[in-house]
């Protein structure tokens, strides 16, 4: 009976894969690498009218209507619904100033301020809200102004270019003006990226500029996925941001901070959480499903970081995390050495790859696993840790052969995935990036893919990135350039100030959240043309075809 | 030509009736008498359901549903629309605390908090808003909560008993609780009024208690008209509050502060503004129409203050203001010495008397003018200033005779007003308060009034007060008691915690502003039963019929 009194809570029995001292050290290094935020005071550059236009992105466009000073000097009571345009995407805190006009305030005022990254956000009603994510992500704030003059700062940080101001309550007995609107914009991007070659086409230069702004706006005290929504660190976004950063702002300390944050906040079993939060204290989304492909990309990220910086200390420090991620490779491998995606999903793993409900993820995951193993092995070699991952060469061989034997259709000259033998851009791209086939075969596959009518296309920029990478890796340089020009250039031509989280040229209102205004329109994973344009200048900065 | 260069702005030519030194001195005294606000921390006492009930006030009543601790411990996502009841009327600042529940926050939350003085305010939709006053007076505040745990204080001061909390945005991926709601209630009423005689009936004791709360809630750094809406100093409300204060809290310094504020902020021509604001610095509602009856009551207020305090210094100091108000008596007097209400209104004067569009105000104003002159004359006598208002005795006589000759219908035994010879409670009450007729005649008139089917009844508590005063002045004590018991007792029986700005037993949704939820339900001018009950204990505290 006495024994019962000494029974310890189960938490103590289930050991932490990393010990607490290690986690604390990692989190300390993450904290020490927190960048300073640079603040810039921004003012609107004009008032615009948002008008319906079937040819404009999402059916709305902003056209210049009057100067800001004209708006400011007139009674605002007659100007409810005015949209002010800051002329660029901003991330920061907004302050509004309101004054009485030739009269005495006798009652409070009520305003709705709606902040939009794109014109449609300040044009379409948010209610009734049909989205699957919290309605509170939408950036409309209602304020009561009890006393004038008033200078009010909206408590939440906002991400926007346009601000619509609706008067929801005013008194017939006095008049007022809105005198000032100010945004204190923040970013941790301070370095100036290199200039592009003068031979760069105007379109590529524009794409590059929009990509730089996108990345800059997402660079806060971590690489955020989107400054409007989710505003946090996701491994998948980080992987692409770090690549883009290496070829632009070169602020590797921010990458380092993110690598350490993710490590310090890993699951108890040593596998990584797909996303973490910084505030009120660093914490992971405990309880969220394990996102396999993101965990695998952490290793590539670490290897890329080492290559970009030579910072071996960090790589060695975080090696146990990379090594641990490899322990999941065999968890759902079937007897043919093919990833059993169905079983993994059934058991609660999240297989992302792309926002696309129709996508069969088996083949893509097979590719991501092989790619990650190869990169991890290369990392191990650099660190003299090869022996610690001695299982990898054999696994790489077996899984690569299995991919060719089981997932490749010789008739179609395409990889197929899952029980329906689905053909997709995801499968081809990832198995090519993983170098399961040689360059020549990869070209054949990608050409077959382009000719395939039923292939599942990328659902958004995240997978488009890997498709472009696969094209480049296969030597299909002109095709790569064409996709960047058409897809990201398409956003630029539709007026993008920053690249969007979701973009389907054939359905501008596509939303994985069932309500397109809640999409993020400045999204990290879409910034990667700056990586392509700057890493492969011979392809993208050459002003030839 | 040179002369033109020296033309001075017109402001310098139009002299201030009071010089600047005098105004500054008055405002300094007002400032020096600013009371400290006493803060009390209040918590809700229970959760209630607001249910439709045709027999309840305005069709809604609150019934107890569960304890506050039950609300606090459960997920609030499933409790949207919960109403917490603080068990009493409060005026102050509200803080809400929100926490995550067994999960990690992945998105912001959006809440609407609706504060109601009465149940209907948290039951009926505010939009579409049809009211004539600013929609912003309605106490619904929308907040976005970016990060948990959160403790958020609503910026505006609120006046309420009930708080409805609606969840407007939440994430399917985490849960949360509302853990605490706190109101820091404020008032400047610190004294404890005398206990009532033990013989006082339960109803009168209840009426007195509700009246005391009403006055206490309106006692802030001035005597506010209503802590929810308009939240400022109006002469008419102040006149009644000062009377009630004299017989309850006896905080005469607050009356003194208000008298000086009104004086210091008077119109340039020396006549008074009907209302003033304290913040951001003391100022009048410049541009608002001159409210004649309120200006006249300032003098009665000053005389009452002197009587209650013996503070001759203040009375002498402010005598020039009282004296100046008398200069308007003859402005719109016709050749028969009757007030030409139509002409005054046409020229922009505001004649209030009561919220009632149908009311002809001529006879009532004649009464208020005579009453004010008599009280001013009495004040002058106390201050040895009789010579300065030597016109008053003659005017009082002439206007009293005129009232009897022109406004009195011998057939009806009633005063009549205006071209339609309208009979109203306002006319009889004010001409009786002015002692235009002797007690015996006044009784006859009031009995005729009660018998008159077409007499215009009081539109609200402000005029009911004067009707009760007229009944008492005429010796119709039981009638006075009956009105207090029926009218104010009616509010008590309908669940009033504080007395309402507007109350028509036959139309509970009456609103001078075309939207009854914007009415104030804790309104200074309705608190006066405490004055009657405590000034005339032989009538109201005697437990006889």
TrEMBL record, chains A, B:
A GO term for molecular function: hydrolase activity
Q: Which UniProt keywords apply?
A: Hydrolase
Gene3D superfamilies the record matches = 1.50.10.10
A UniProt-annotated Pfam family: Glyco_hydro_78_N
Task: Say if the entry is tagged with keyword Hydrolase.
Answer: yes
Q: Name one GO biological process term.
A: carbohydrate metabolic process
- List, for all copies, the residue spans of the domain called Glycosyl hydrolase family 78 alpha-rhamnosidase N-terminal: 44-183
Chain ranges of the Alpha-L-rhamnosidase six-hairpin glycosidase domain: 202-534
Name of the protein this chain belongs to: Glycoside hydrolase
């Amino acid at each position: 009976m006495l024994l019962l009194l000494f029974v310890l809570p189960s938490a103590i029995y289930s050991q932490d894969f990393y010990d607490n001292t290690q986690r604390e050290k990692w989190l300390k290094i993450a904290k020490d690498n927190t960048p300073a935020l640079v603040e810039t005071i921004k003012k609107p550059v004009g008032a615009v009218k948002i008008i319906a236009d079937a040819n404009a992105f999402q059916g709305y466009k902003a056209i210049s209507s009057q100067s800001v000073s004209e708006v400011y000097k007139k009674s605002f009571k007659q100007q409810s619904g005015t949209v002010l345009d800051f002329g660029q995407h901003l991330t920061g805190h907004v302050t509004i100033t309101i004054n009485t006009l030739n009269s005495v305030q006798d009652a409070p005022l009520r305003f709705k301020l709606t902040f939009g990254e794109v014109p449609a956000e300040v044009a379409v009603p948010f209610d009734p809200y049909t989205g699957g994510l919290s309605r509170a992500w939408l950036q409309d704030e209602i304020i009561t102004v009890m006393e004038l003059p008033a200078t009010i700062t909206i408590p939440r940080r906002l991400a926007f270019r346009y601000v619509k101001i609706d008067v929801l309550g005013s008194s017939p007995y006095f008049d007022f003006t809105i005198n000032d609107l100010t945004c204190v914009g923040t970013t941790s991007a301070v370095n100036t990226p290199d200039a592009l070659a003068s031979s760069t086409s105007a379109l590529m230069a524009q794409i590059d500029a929009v990509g730089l702004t996108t990345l800059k706006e997402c660079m806060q005290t971590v690489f955020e996925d989107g400054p409007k929504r989710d505003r946090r660190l996701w491994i998948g976004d980080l992987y692409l941001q770090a690549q883009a950063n290496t070829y632009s702002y070169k602020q590797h300390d921010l990458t380092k901070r993110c690598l350490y944050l993710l490590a310090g906040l890993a699951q108890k079993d040593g596998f990584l959480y797909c996303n973490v939060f910084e505030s009120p204290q660093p914490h992971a989304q405990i309880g969220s499903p394990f996102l396999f492909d993101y965990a695998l990309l952490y290793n590539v990220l670490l290897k890329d970081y080492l290559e970009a910086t030579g910072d071996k200390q960090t790589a060695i420090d975080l090696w146990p995390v990379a090594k641990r991620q490899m322990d999941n490779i065999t968890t759902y491998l079937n007897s043919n050495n093919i990833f059993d995606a169905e079983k993994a999903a059934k058991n609660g793993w999240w297989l992302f790859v792309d926002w696309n409900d129709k996508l069969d993820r088996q083949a893509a995951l097979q590719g991501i696993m092989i790619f990650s193993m190869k990169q991890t092995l290369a990392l191990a070699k650099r660190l003299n840790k090869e022996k610690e991952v001695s299982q990898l060469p054999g696994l790489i061989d077996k899984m690569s052969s299995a991919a060719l034997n089981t997932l490749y259709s010789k008739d179609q000259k395409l990889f197929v995935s899952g029980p329906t033998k689905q053909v997709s851009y995801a499968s081809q791209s990832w198995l090519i990036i993983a170098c399961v086939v040689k360059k020549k075969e990869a070209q054949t596959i990608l050409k077959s893919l382009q000719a395939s009518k039923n292939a599942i296309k990328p659902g958004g920029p995240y997978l488009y990135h890997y498709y472009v990478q696969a094209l480049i890796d296969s030597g299909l340089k002109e095709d790569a350039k064409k996709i960047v020009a058409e897809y990201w250039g398409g956003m630029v031509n539709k007026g993008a100030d920053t690249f969007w989280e979701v973009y389907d040229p054939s359905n501008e209102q596509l939303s994985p959240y069932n309500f397109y205004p809640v999409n993020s329109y400045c999204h990290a994973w879409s910034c990667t043309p700056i990586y392509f344009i700057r890493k492969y200048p011979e392809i993208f900065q050459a002003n030839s075809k």
